[in-house]
């Protein structure tokens, strides 16, 4: 009886930690996408904007990969829903498309996709905060 209670308490603590890590990863992703919008404005108005936007793209891509990792860790060992893994994978695909479009200099798709990604990430963050 005591072993079962301890196992349940441990699983609950692990799930809570995984959920917190997931929220932090989504918040970081949302912040990096927002900073990309700021650096895009600098890209148009300053000489160092291109450098900032390029570096920010790498950070944003890394944040998307961290989100996938956090989603998998919250799902697999914690026994949570696999839905965040699908969302995180979708964001990683969108981030990959963003990088390709940015390198190819296709702003007619790159900019709206960035706005869409920010909105979706913000919605995902708000949905996670409710849980």
Tell me the strand percentage band: under 5%
Q: Using DSSP, what is the number of strands?
A: 0
Looking at how many chains there are and whether they match, the oligomeric state comes to single chain
Shape: elongated
Query: What's the overall average pLDDT, rounded?
Result: 88
Runs in which pLDDT lies below 50 for 5 or more consecutive residues are none
The separation of the N and C termini measures 30 Å
Largest sheet: none
Walk me through this protein's architecture.
Helices cover 88% and strands 0% of the residues. It has 131 residues and is mainly alpha-helical. Helix 2 runs antiparallel to helix 3 (83-103). The longest helix is centred in the first third of the chain and has 44 residues, at 2-45. The chain is elongated. The model has no long low-confidence stretch (mean pLDDT 88).
Which helices and strands occur, and which strands form pairs?
Blueprint: H1 2-45, H2 49-75, H3 83-103, H4 107-129
């Amino acid at each position: 009886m005591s072993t079962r209670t301890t196992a349940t308490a441990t699983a609950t603590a692990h799930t809570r930690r995984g959920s917190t890590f997931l929220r932090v990863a989504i918040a970081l992703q949302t912040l990096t996408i927002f900073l990309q919008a700021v650096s895009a404005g600098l890209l148009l108005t300053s000489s160092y904007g291109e450098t900032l936007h390029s570096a920010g793209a790498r950070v944003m891509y890394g944040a998307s990969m961290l989100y996938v990792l956090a989603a998998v860790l919250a799902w697999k060992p914690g026994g949570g829903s696999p839905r965040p893994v699908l969302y995180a994978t979708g964001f990683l695909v969108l981030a990959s498309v963003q990088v390709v479009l940015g390198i190819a200099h296709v702003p007619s798709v790159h900019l709206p996709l960035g706005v869409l990604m920010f909105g979706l990430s913000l919605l995902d963050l708000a949905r996670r905060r409710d849980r």
